[in-house]
Amino acid sequence: MNYIIDIENSDIRLDKAISNLTGKSRNNALILLESDLVTVNDKKAKPSYKTVIGDKIEILEQEVKVMELKPEKLDLDIVYQDNDVVVINKAKGMVVHPAVGNYEGTLVSGLLYEVEDLSSINGTVRPGIVHRIDKDTTGLLMVAKNDFAHEHLSLQLRNHTVKRCYIALVYGVISEDRGRIDAPIGRDSQTDRKRMAVVEGGKNAVTNFKVLERFKDYTLIECELETGRTHQIRVHMKYIGHPLVGDPLYGPRKIIGDCGQYLHAKTLGFKHPTKDEYLEFDSKLPDYFLNFIEELRKST
After folding, report:
1. Do the beta carbons of residue 147 and residue 244 sit within 8 Å?
2. Cα separation of 242 and 209, whole Å?
3. Which of 1, 40, 163, 198 could pair covalently with 269 via S-S, beta carbons 3.0-4.6 A apart?
4. Residue 109 — φ and ψ, nearest 5°?
């Protein structure tokens, strides 16, 4: 469905304009945007984008399920919690926030059940969510309980002062002990909006890695992010010829196992928004990851 922004819907937030044009709620407009189902002049745009007369709005899915966020008892693994911050060890297969096709069982639903207060900066679809990790990526992420904490943590992310270390298993044997991948990331094409790639003119993206262990046909590595682009580690490792094992989007067509990509957000460190102290958390690899590593050791 295509729309052209007129004077009545110009100079307002994109999510509000979509709501006005379609008659859908702001929540559903946000879901469309977060699901990459909306383009402005053939490009992806943020909900906060200010519309301009003549903008061409294309909505790729006309029907979006009306959604009410409901608290769900999901037994979240809460590593740390105080009046400002929650640190969660996310399980494999859990989507962080609702989007088209994923309305229930999300981290947000679990947070609404477990946590009394969450920041409102990202609206009602993503309360408290400061950053995300992929559905099949396990490990640590931080959540804000109030708007002051959210702004403070977001600033640290923008300034690249948050420590984020991941453990990944990749195809092939990496000969270097350490490496730095500095390659811009953007949308792969207009036809596959879920896929990212190293592209000219993309956003700055830097991943540092070091080899932890080598196997016959695989390498276990630690990746530390300097930036936080969508699918950054997955895209960068594919770019250097060592895609993540089990990655259905960037790896070989023949997938090993049914666990998704072997990627775990192991270490998370940041400055507390109000206590003026540095906090760092660590999480162990999930059992399926550890078991596969043991299998590789036996066969090497």
Report:
1. no
2. 12
3. 163
4. -60, -40
Answer for the pair 295, 217: CB distance below 8 angstroms, yes or no: no
- Give the model confidence (pLDDT) of 179-238 as tens digits: 999 999 988 865 566 789 999 989 999 999 999 999 999 999 999 999 999 899 999 999
Dump pLDDT digits (tens) for 66-121. Answer: 455 688 999 999 999 999 999 999 999 898 877 656 667 889 999 999 998 999 87
Tokens of 251: 């790896």
Instruction: Fill in the amino acid letter for 150.
Output: H
Q: What is the value of pTM for the model shown?
A: 0.80
Check 134, 136, 188, 247 and give the catalytic one.
134
* Burial label, 212 (beta-carbon count in 10 A; 0-12, 13-18, 19+): middle
Q: In Å, how far are 5, 18, 35 from 50, measured between CA atoms?
A: 11, 12, 19
| DSSP type of residue 126 | S
Q: Given 3-state DSSP classes, what are the helix, strand and coil percentages for the chain, each rounded to the nearest 5?
A: 20, 30, 50
